[in-house]
Amino acid sequence: MEKQTFTVGRNEGKKDIRTAFIFSCPGQEELKSGLLVNGQTGKNLDMMLTFLNAKRPDIFPSVNRYDYRITNSSEIVHYKAHDQRTEPSVSEINNEKNIERLKNDISGYDYVITFGRCSAIAADNLKQRGVCKETVFLYSRHLSFLCLNSSINTDVHGNPIERGCENATAKRLEAAAEMILQQLS
Predict the structure, then answer these.
(1) Helices marked H in the chain — which ranges?
(2) Domain coverage including residue 59
(3) Does 171 fall in a domain?
(4) The CATH number of the domain where 73 resides is what?
(5) Degrees to nearest 5, angle at CA 182 with 181 and 185
(6) What would the pLDDT profile of 120-179 be if each residue is shown by its tens digit?
(7) Bridge partners, residue 11, by sequence
(8) How far is 137 from 115, CA to CA, in rounded Å?
(9) Exposed, middle or buried, 20 (CB in 10 Å: 0-12/13-18/19+)?
(10) % residues pLDDT > 90 (the chain)
């Protein structure tokens, strides 16, 4: 018996915020709630937004993720118990219908931040097609604990971040936020 394919749409955000986010795909938490970037990744995004908002409130005017347009590189839900995957395939991302959906989701936004490899693939596809020419694309690591813990080992001052140390996640998110801000320079 074939498993059913579920999809979760986009978060509209506030009309006056000109920044959008692209994540990989919705998972089990998003399927249950109907809200994108739910669970721990969403909490990590909110924490990262506090750092971004403090330094660039013109681009990041809110610390609430749901004030921003949020979409995914694929709207098809993936999680281990459902289909043994947590990420969309490249062919799923590059599907013509999906790329058209993404174009519509981020069209008119001044800044689009991609979180993770899959969202970067989607953004690069859009750029190669010459759509969203006025949009500035910024790239970030995915905000899952697995990615943060394995890829960010120093804080913004260059000091090592020890696993399990106090405020380790906040230090990693501040470093990830700084990487986004450096792309604006």
Answers:
(1) 28-33, 40-55, 80-83, 90-94, 96-106, 117-128, 145-151, 168-182
(2) 19-142
(3) no
(4) 3.40.470.10
(5) 100
(6) 999 999 999 888 888 999 999 999 988 999 999 999 999 999 888 889 999 999 999 999
(7) 70
(8) 11
(9) buried
(10) 70
